[in-house]
Design brief:
2 strands; mainly alpha; 62% helix; flat; 32 helices; Leucine-rich Repeat Variant; 3 domains
Length: 543
């Protein structure tokens, strides 16, 4: 039996990793590759992925690694951070470079795992550019081995950071070998920036521009922003027309692209024509609204042609009675801009915003706003069940000085969408009482008041908690009113709900507190799990 004892004493033989796509896979084989996930979806008519493809299979793992329950929108983190490369990033790329070369040359399980783990933990946005530069300067690189590793990462990896490195590596290879792979991945906003750069680097002109333009039409978020910024660098006539009519639109903020598209698209030249098409006019409406509302990018105060463009727009708006209702908002924004007294007009005069010109522009805009057609169309639009139509109509109505409270209240009665915030802007106590009564009928307060927690209150599951906030945050102006809503907020698992309830009770004089307020506050103090909320609640115990 000695042989059996010796056999049992031996450590089990290591299990060789499963080879996937020519390389030993250093991940759980139950995890799907991100490319395979995206390839399973049929594209929509415009070449876009369907909404169901937006959430990648590694989303929960990404959140757990970050230690946050919040998730960035696809491509948002890369879009916000930009391409800033620090000196420390340039130094730290050397270990990643050595690991990449070892993995591509040997394909050993140990070398591949070392590289994959580093790529998966790397700050990819900071390391990709210096990694590519270091590779270009490296001698003795086997292009075939590099291509095999890059394609393996892009096609097989179940984690987004290694996929991004794979895309970037494919962009180094000429002639292009994997355009369709890059386009499929690039249709997801998380990878659009990397795919766009790779396509630009690997394809000749004009094919590169054509592929980027097709990809830009298929994405609507950060991917659209990142691609349009590249396309706007040297656009041809057709691309300039698209930039002015559609290219600036995105689901993040039109302000990100308004200045880029107006400048690169030649908005002044386009509006200088005697007649313009409806699509260009609508594009001008939206571009001017974005330029006139300062945001995260260059605006009207950075736009050399701004004053001249506004003048040409007003000329086209005159007599355009069938213009979109948004036109009224653009006219209001124009008037508000030129009439603003707190602007640095001395500096803006260099861009053509002289006092006489501003006076003419303001007079023209006010004259167009005075047309009664806008009020009639706004009132009619507020009868629509469509949320977007109502939003535009109500915004126009308020810009014209109309009271929209009753229309918003009737809309909330029908629960078409959330109007609580707008309804609570009222200073009329009788109106507020109507809002509170309606909230009492529409809210399930017992389902909200489940006890304190650390919830951030994000997402559809917390829609009612968010709506409750819209009401309670305004109750400090109305002592004693809406106590059932305040009490439910005090027992909500959402931290912000409890913060807001504490602020309201602090704003109320104690004589307006109902009898049950004191005991409920004592219970809240005992059960509170958030230190900041507990401090606020303790402050309520002392007169």
């Amino acid at each position: 039996m000695q042989w059996l004892k010796q056999l049992l004493a031996r450590p089990p033989a290591p299990v060789a990793p499963t080879v996937v796509g020519g390389f030993p896979a250093p991940w759980d084989l139950d995890r799907p590759s991100l490319h395979a996930h995206l390839a399973d979806f049929a594209l929509e008519a415009d070449g876009a992925l369907p909404p169901a493809a937006a959430t990648l299979p590694d989303e929960e793992l990404v959140r757990s690694r970050s230690g946050s329950s919040l998730a960035w929108a696809p491509g948002a983190l890369d879009g916000v951070m930009g391409h800033h490369v620090s000196e420390s990033a340039e130094r730290s790329v050397q270990p990643l470079l050595r690991a990449l070369i070892a993995a591509s040359r040997t394909r050993s399980p140990e070398a591949v795992k070392d590289f994959y783990d580093m790529a998966n933990d790397a700050e990819v946005l900071q390391l990709v550019d210096p990694l590519m530069e270091a590779l270009r300067q490296q001698r003795g690189i086997d292009p075939a081995a590099l291509h095999a590793l890059a394609r393996w990462l892009a096609r097989e990896a179940p984690d987004r950071a290694p996929v991004k490195i794979g895309i970037a590596l494919l962009g180094m290879l000429r002639p292009a070998q994997d355009t369709e792979l890059l386009l499929r991945l690039g249709r997801h906003e998380e990878f659009t920036l990397f795919a766009g750069v790779a396509l630009s680097n690997s394809l000749p002109e004009p094919e590169a521009t054509a592929q980027l333009w097709a990809l830009a039409r298929a994405v609507k978020g950060w991917g659209r922003i990142q691609l349009v910024e590249r396309l706007a660098q040297s656009p041809g006539p057709e691309l300039r027309a698209w930039l002015l009519r559609e290219g600036f639109r995105n689901e993040v903020m039109n302000e990100y692209l308004a200045h880029t598209c107006a400048s690169a698209g030649g908005l002044l030249d386009a509006l200088s024509a005697e007649d313009i098409d409806d699509a260009l006019f609508l594009g001008a409406v939206e571009l001017l609204r974005a330029l006139l509302n300062p945001g995260p990018a260059a605006d009207i105060t950075h736009y050399d042609d701004g004053a001249a463009v506004v003048e040409r727009f007003l000329a086209h708006a005159r007599g355009r009675t069938a213009a979109p209702l948004d036109t009224c908002l653009a006219l209001s924004d124009i008037a508000g801009f030129v009439e603003g007294e707190d602007r640095d007009w001395a500096s803006l005069e260099a861009l053509g915003w002289t006092a006489p010109r501003r006076a003419r522009i303001g007079q023209d805009a006010r004259q167009l706003l005075a047309d009664p057609v806008w009020e009639r169309r706004a009132v009619d639009g507020m009868e629509s069940a469509d949320t977007a139509v109502f939003w535009t109509a109500s915004t126009v109505a308020e810009a014209l000085g109309l009271d929209t409270w009753e229309q918003r209240f009737h809309r909330q009665e029908r629960a078409l969408d959330s109007q609580w915030y707008h309804l609570m802007r009222s200073e009329d106590a009788a109106r507020v009482e109507r809002v509170l009564a309606l909230a009492g009928r529409q809210f399930n307060l017992a389902a909200i008041a489940t006890g304190p927690g650390e919830e951030l209150g994000m997402g559809p599951a917390f829609r009612e908690h968010s709506n409750l906030d819209m009401i309670v945050q305004s109750l400090g102006r109305f002592p004693g009113r809406g106590w059932p809503l305040v009490a439910a907020s005090l027992r909500s698992p959402v931290v912000r709900n409890r913060h807001v309830a504490a602020r309201v009770l602090k704003a109320w004089d104690r004589a307006s507190w109902p009898a049950e307020a004191g005991p409920l506050i004592e219970r809240a103090v005992r059960e509170e799990c958030n230190e900041d909320v507990r401090d606020a609640l303790l402050g309520l115990r002392t007169p």
